[in-house]
């Protein structure tokens, strides 16, 4: 029986005669042939891959794995460049903001000839201030306003009266370390009610 079809394995010079086109398709389905193997049928002058032969083109489309196009090496992926650009932009923004903030912090509002807080002597403010001394007499707190002892409950009223009469808006406060904080807080509340705008602390010295 004369064979009208011939198969030539890809990359090989070995030629296998095939009885018919149906036999070629059967060999493809059974895995005997590959779609890239070359075939030459009756009337063909040249060898062609089975998948490109017009007789098998429709049939091999279901058998041939999809061709994977090689990556286009001429295409430039801009994603990494964009990511790096954003990181650099954020870095420059933060650096600029920090530099501006540092200059505003380092720069004084106005030049000062003297450094450090000014020292205030009690003798300089004594004439414009009230004096309050607080200490403990056993378990009882004692409060001395100017030169007389007053009841803690009357301190606010007495202080308001003196401020209105003398116009003094400063207070020199001397507190024994054993005085409860609540008593001292009462002195501050009374000073606030009397509209005293400055309180100076003085070291407490027990009366001799």
Brief rundown of the structure:
This protein has six helices and nine strands. It is an alpha+beta fold. Strands 7-6-5-8-9 form a five-stranded mixed sheet, with helices on one face.
Structural notes for this entry:
This protein is an alpha+beta fold and 208 residues long. 34% of the residues lie in helices and 20% in strands. It has six helices and nine strands, in the order ββαββαααβββαβαβ. It has helices at residues 21-30, 57-60, 79-106, 122-125, 155-166, 181-193, and strands at 5-8, 15-18, 38-40, 48-49, 129-137, 140-145, 148-150, 170-175, 198-202. It has a five-stranded mixed beta sheet with strand order 7-6-5-8-9, with helices on one face. The chain has a four-stranded antiparallel beta sheet with strand order 2-1-3-4. β3 (38-40) and β4 form a beta hairpin. α5 runs parallel beside α6. The longest helix is centred in the middle third of the chain and has 28 residues, at 79-106. The model has no long low-confidence stretch (mean pLDDT 77).
